[in-house]
Structures are given as C-alpha cells and as structure tokens.
Write a structure and sequence with these properties.
alpha/beta; Rossmann fold; Dehydroquinate synthase-like, alpha domain; 2 domains; 6-stranded parallel beta sheet; 3-stranded mixed beta sheet
C-alpha cells in the first residue's frame, strides 16, 4: 500500500462540538471568534423553521440579519447577492444552518467579503492570502462534510459549469453537529447525502494523496454509513442513527479534505452542471462504475472497503475482493432506494460526451488513482452508468 518514502501533510483545523442540543452553544463559539454582528445563512425551506429560530434566539443581540435566498446547487449570482447583504448589515461573522448549498454559499460570501469584487472573479486553488470572515457551521444534512472541508462548489448557471474554490482559509472555524438538526431530512435526501459521504470515503481511499491517517478515517466512515444510513432512511427520528451519520460525514470530510477525491466527483460535478442531478445522487450512481474503472490500480484499497462494508473476502484475491466491494455498493444503494442508472435521473444519452469532456477539466480528476487525460475514458464510464 505505502512504500517507505511516503511523505504527507494532514490538516484538521475545525473545532467540532457534537451532541443533542449542541446548537444552543453557538453564541459561545461566536464570542470566542470575537464576532459582533452575525449573518445567519440558511435556505428558504428552513428560514422559518424551529431549528433556525432556535439558533437566532441563541445568538441573542449578535444576530444582525439572515440571508436565505439559496437554491440547491448554489450559484454565483446567489453568493454575490448574499455578500452585498452581508456588507449592508456590517456582518463580521457568519453562522450557517443548512446543508451543502447553504454552507458553500456562506463560504463564497466569506471569500467575497475578504477579497471584494464578485465570486466569479476568484475561482481557483490556494488563492487566499490570509484568514477570512469567521464561520460557524451547523449542518442540517449528513453527507457533504462541508463543515470541515477546504472547498466550495458554486455553479455558474449561465455557463452550466460548476466552479471550484479551494483554499485552507475557507475551512470553517467551528462545526456544531447536533443530531436534532437533521431529523427533518426526508428519506431521499437522507440517502443521497449519505451516499455523498460514502463517495468521499472511497475516493479518499483511492486518491493519489491517500495516507494512513485518511485511510483510517475513510474506513471508519464506511463502517458508520453501512451501519446507520439505512436506519436513518427508515426512521428519520432515530437520533442515534442521525448522530452517527453526522460523525460519518464529518470524518469523511476530513479524509477527503486531506486525500482529495477523483473521477467520481469529476463526473458528478459535470453531470450536475449539465443536467441538474443532485450531487449525492450522481455520486451514488457513478461510484461503483468508477471503482470498476480504477480496480486494477487500487484493488488492495477496495479490499479494505469491502471489509469495512462487512463483506467476507477471506480467501479472495484483491481483484475479486474489489469486485465484491462494488457489488456490495449496488446492493446497498438499492436497499436505501437510490437510482442505479443515469437515465433514471434525467441524463440524456446525447449529452454524455459533453459531460465526459467537462470532467476532464474538473480539478478533482487530477487526484484519481488512475491518471485520466482522454475524455474517451470518462465516456466509457458514463456509458456503463447510463
């Protein structure tokens, strides 16, 4: 797996609070960050919810205003609007209550507040020179791990492309994991976000930048997801399952935030950009097909994934064990009601070539275990997944 010359850097700067009712401690965290005027970022679905009201009440006099004009697959125009509002209220701290789109919007707002201009001016990697607006995240989904990741994905809706913003200064300062904040997720969203976390785990395992620490986190994430995602899908009020899925998403986020992802995310970003497929669903469909593509390079890692999923691979070769891992994923996603093919979620066959070409230019593909430079290779995966 690793030779004696392996060198790596591991980073995990986010403070994590976990537990039922922990969202009520948000003011203490804002105070520790020296925040005086808090912009609360959430979405339209949650803005009048009990969850958001609880956080507003906890923030007391430091609540300065709320930005909730957020849609799934947040866009550059939304981030710019949020940044304009943040400036108008003099916000010096951001608290996000929501899922991946809300968190990515807030990260984008923090970037614009620091650098000025519009968010479309700043996409790239390692583009910040210092800390930006302090950010506390209270996730209401369990999948993205965005409370601990260095990246935001923001869609340019005019060009139908997803832009990547990646920098260690984007990583939120605090993540508050309160299981009670995720109980309103419907089963389909629970399943999709959970499979986003699963894809983070497996891609962290097969990334070119994987290391023993990220492997350990990824494997534990897989164990937690297999053990608790079906329970959370079946019974949204199961706080134990909800909490364990929050932890799974969190450790998956730390794992891929250090090891990076690969072809699964490159294709999922492109499918989402072109056809509006929700990110977790795209990942769920594509993951086993991408594993089969990478199998000849990282079969030993997929053997570990199979074992973490509870598959008996004793006596099997690494290659056969790796096939078992992909098969186990198909069975698992079927169990939680996820679609199995791209054609089931509105992807059109005539658009596959453009998706394949988009994926080649996606930054995630750089870290795939098997180097990919030819869109014909990504097209092969898409055709199998279609």
């Amino acid at each position: 797996m690793y030779d004696g010359d392996l060198n790596f850097i591991f980073r995990n700067p986010t403070k994590i609070l976990f537990g039922k009712g922990s969202a009520g401690e948000v003011l203490e965290e804002v105070n520790a960050l020296k925040g005086k005027k808090v912009l609360l970022v959430t979405d339209k679905f949650l803005e009048k919810s009990e969850m958001v009201e609880k956080v507003k009440k906890a923030l007391s006099g430091k609540f300065a205003g709320m930005f909730s004009d957020i849609e799934p697959d947040t866009g550059t125009h939304i981030v710019d609007r949020g940044a304009d509002y943040a400036r108008s209220i003099g916000a010096d701290c951001i608290v996000t209550v929501g899922g991946g789109s809300s968190i990515d919007t807030a990260k984008g707002i923090a970037v614009v507040l620091a650098l000025g201009g519009r968010i479309g001016d700043h996409s790239g990697v390692n583009f910040l020179t210092g800390p930006i607006t302090p950010h506390v995240v209270i996730p209401t989904t369990a999948g993205t791990g965005s409370e601990v990741t260095y990246a935001a994905v923001i869609k340019d809706h005019e060009k139908h492309r997803k832009l990547i913003y990646a920098d260690n200064y984007i990583i939120p300062n605090v993540g508050i994991l309160d299981p009670t904040m995720t109980v309103s997720m419907p089963p389909r969203v629970t399943a999709g976000t959970g499979m986003d976390a699963m894809s983070h785990c497996i891609e962290a395992l097969h990334s070119q930048q994987a290391n023993p620490i990220t492997d350990g986190l990824a494997l534990q994430g897989i164990r937690l997801i297999v053990g608790h995602l079906p329970k959370a899908v079946d019974n949204g009020k199961d706080l134990l399952a909800r909490g364990q899925m929050q932890i799974a998403a969190n450790v998956a986020g730390v794992a891929f935030g250090n090891a990076q992802v690969g072809v699964v995310h490159a294709l999922a970003h492109s499918v989402g950009g072109r056809f509006g497929v929700p990110h977790g669903i795209a990942n769920s469909i594509l993951l086993p097909y991408c594993m089969e593509y990478n199998l000849d390079v990282v079969a030993d890692k997929y053997r570990l994934a199979a074992q973490a999923m509870g598959v008996d691979v004793k006596g099997l070769s690494d290659e056969d064990a790796a096939h078992k891992a992909a098969e186990a994923l198909w069975s698992f996603t079927g169990r939680i009601g996820m679609p199995q093919k791209l054609r089931e979620v509105g992807v059109r066959e005539e658009g596959l070539r453009q998706v394949a070409e988009d994926a080649i230019s996606d930054g995630s593909i750089v870290y795939n275990s098997k180097p990919i430079f030819d869109p014909e290779e990504t097209l092969k995966i898409l055709k199998r997944a279609f």
